[in-house]
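Exercise (ungraded).
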Amino acid sequence: MPDTSSCQFEQRPRRLVMGAVGLQPDFCKMCNVRPSSVCSAIDDADISRLSDAAVETIVPPGRCFIEEGEPATDFFNVTSGTVKLFKALPDGRRQITGFAGPGHFLGLAVSDRYAFGAEAVDTVRLCRFSRERMRTLLDDFPRMERRLLEEASNELVAAHNQMLLLGRKTARERVASFLLDQANHGELNSAGQLHLPMTRGDIADYLGLTIETVSRTLSWMRAQGMIDVGKGYAITLLSRERLESLAEGED
Amino acid sequence: MPDTSSCQFEQRPRRLVMGAVGLQPDFCKMCNVRPSSVCSAIDDADISRLSDAAVETIVPPGRCFIEEGEPATDFFNVTSGTVKLFKALPDGRRQITGFAGPGHFLGLAVSDRYAFGAEAVDTVRLCRFSRERMRTLLDDFPRMERRLLEEASNELVAAHNQMLLLGRKTARERVASFLLDQANHGELNSAGQLHLPMTRGDIADYLGLTIETVSRTLSWMRAQGMIDVGKGYAITLLSRERLESLAEGED
DNA sequence: ATGACCCCTTGATATAAATCAATGCAGAGC
DNA sequence: GCTCTGCATTGATTTATATCAAGGGGTCAT
């Protein structure tokens, strides 16, 4: 059962129907509003419609749940875990266009087919809506449309940054940019380590490099004293300053 | 004076105030609605507010009208001509993130600073709004918000395609993809030629290549009989089929 | 006309990153 | 205990593309 502790509806039990389907906390996250402002805008009929619309889904690591080119039936909001989004060429070359963490939307596009594939990096929890119902939700909750526009704008900025990276940065600059992005968006653990849920292959496909180049670059950074590569997927950033100047090509 | 022939308001002259400031046809384009549905939703007070909000701007070729990192005061809708959008690194390396033609929006981002620069490729006509007023326009015309979301979604799809191109395609595949994109989005002239308004340098900065590689690749395609490179910026696609299989790496 | 400038093309060479190859390590299954 | 498999690291070599360099053909101002 989803955590509802951050939402204050203990006094209004009927409202918890939403929580029961995993919708309420996610819906708050989607709309980026306080739960109370969402709930004051809906009535009992809405509740049943919303409950009906959302399904909580759990996807195991490595499982692909959106196939590029398939009919786009669903719309997702990531609740926990990390998803990789990718596009592929017929001969198997693959470009990961982004990693989506908690709060991110998938399947926004206007097209009736998915423009990308999506695969769980680790265990992923999703809030799934049918796109058809999504459309009626948007009519009823105009805030949500604004929220989606905001999200799309942010993704667009990220995409443009990534285009600069892919088109004009060297391997070292790419890896430095990636580590800093990850450190800014994800959280560091208690030891100050950055936990990267994805494999070297995923990083390579995200940065437009090969596995070997990513590995060599990380080794070089370690030799330079910029980072410490721990066991598994943990990395410590020892000199954020040097990584930053490297990432922007100031060297 | 802007062309109003596509809008049917000859019988309601007062409405032409909008056309007088270059707003009305552009506004229709922005909202992607028939002029009548826009105008039925507004009254005289709205007209003066809208007229006030929009300014028609003409930008000469090569003129940069958005500086990356400057405060984002305005919001633009391209009326005619082609704009190049770009991001740059401190040492001068540049990535063109897209070319914006008639109907495209600029300055959508949530941030209070422009995330990219914009420069006119040829003579560009723009409809300019202050972002502050844009916000109130969005409140009054909810259709517009949906239209912007649609636009942003389409741009996101284009950005992801470009990431695949920049990260994983060879020079030949990149140039082939570019030519086909241009042929699909722009119009061919009467001789079946594609007119590219941008220089080889712009194409290179868009495709993550150098001028020399773009030039050599076009020469190679000509030698292969895929294209014909005319005088100036005109190119004829002789075998769209071969270009398509090349663009997707099927060779 | 002349020179300056910009853009494009083509050739020769250099290099960053890919590819090919070998090895090590850790977890899963038997 | 084993082997098998996937992932990561490191080394040797290749290659696609960048860089360096030269020359041609416009256009514009003098």
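Further reading is listed at the end of the chapter. For now, observe: Residues 1-22 of chain B have pLDDT under 50 and may be disordered. Chain B has two domains: 13-163, 169-247.
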